[in-house]
Amino acid sequence: GPAGDALIKRPERAMAALSEAGADALLTGHVHVANAQLRETEASPIIVAAAATAASTRQRGEAPSYNLITWTGEELRVGVQRYTGNDFTLERQFCFSRQDGKWRGH
Question: 13-24 burial string, b = 16+ CB within 10 Å, else e?
Fold first, then answer.
């Protein structure tokens, strides 16, 4: 399933509990696919960022990568750093900003 609920029973309850506790983001990585998205909850949206793999052979069709997270308080960026054979370079970036106390993707 989508990042954040692939291995969690009753993911909607887990996400609601995290949001009610004031969590802004959930970092995952077991599914080996890089992604970041907003997950809506009753309290407030949460950013779910899933890392791929930097060293495992379980690549799920993706070259090795890791997520570089930049967080300024009002803006969070998840940069997927992909291995190109010699080094890691920015492949794509997911951007989120807090507006009126809630996270929004852009």
Answer: eebeebbeeeeb
Q: Could you report the per-residue pLDDT of 21-67, keeping only the tens digit for each?
A: 999 999 987 777 899 999 998 889 999 999 988 877 666 678 889 99
pTM confidence score: 0.84
DSSP state at residue 12: H
* Whether 70 contacts 25, CB under 8 Å: no
Query: Rounded distance, CA 39 to CA 43, Å?
Result: 11
d(CA 88, CA 96): 23
Dump the DSSP string for 20-53.
Answer: HTT--EEEE-TT---EEEEE--SS--EEEEE---
Residue with tokens 């793999």: 53
